[in-house]
Design goal:
Elements (H helix, E strand, L loop, with lengths): L2 E8 L2 E9 L5 E10 L4 H12 L6 E5 L1
Parallel strand pairs: 1-4
Antiparallel strand pairs: 1-2, 2-3
Length: 64
């Protein structure tokens, strides 16, 4: 099963929601990280994945 990362552009900044297996092997469900920074979507995706130590190739990504 692939990990799932959702990025949301809110009035308070970018929020990432992650479901899947972290780089430490922990399974998480809809865990949030706030204030995701980046000049573009690619940077925001990479910065969000770092929070959970997840691999972009193993993650389904949605941007809203």
């Amino acid at each position: 099963m692939k990990n799932k990362l959702e990025l949301f552009d809110t009035a308070q900044g970018w929020i990432a929601v992650f479901t899947g297996k972290t780089g430490m092997g922990e399974q998480v469900s809809e865990e949030e990280a706030h204030n995701i920074e980046g000049a573009n979507n690619e940077e925001r995706i990479q910065n969000a994945l770092v929070v959970w130590g997840a691999d972009v190739e193993q993650t389904e990504i949605t941007i809203s």
